[in-house]
Design goal:
With 226 residues, the protein is an alpha+beta fold. It is 38% helix and 25% strand.
Amino acid sequence: MARKVKTEQDKKKKKKKVIVISLIILIVIVALGFVCWKFVFNKSDNRTPQQVTILDNMEEYEYTLSDKDSNYYKKEYELLKDLLKGDSVDEKEYSTLVARLFTIDLYTLSTKVNMYDVGGSEFYFKDKKTMFEQKVMDTLYSTMLDNTFGDRKQELPEVNSIETVSVEETSYKLNDKEVDGYLVKLNIGYVKDLKYDNEASVVVCKEDGVRWSVVDFQPTLNPKYK
């Protein structure tokens, strides 16, 4: 009988030992899980979002320049700013610069925060801008990674040259009405060739009295209109 009692006691001790070891293992797993979540999966807690500073604002035309814009874009922006300061504005030259800036900003994906930060939007005709932005997000910007915290590791294009091929007067159907404008054809050059579009045809028309805006864009020198 004494031997039987001793065996039951041993079983109880062994059971307690297993429970203690299991609790220790559970605590270690929970602790490791917390550490992984805190320092691996929850990195954003220790990161600061990038700040964007507005360097210039042409309020009358609703054009802005920020510190994240490329150096090439900034040079072209200054040309537009100087043009619009004059007492009289050459509308053909104005339309050409709008088309150039629009194209530079659209295809310089490297400066964009994410796919929702659509380049060229501020130069687009207001009534058509939402549709334009959605199309770009669904196509050209669809694979862009987020860069809110400045840690994106993705090679993206940066435009460093625009050649104006031609500028010609045209008419464009806008809101069931034929309006006058300019068709600007461009060649696009990049810092590095990543196989993005290298041609563009941009139609620019007058909007809100003094402002000229993009109403149509096609990545070719041979555009087709309905």
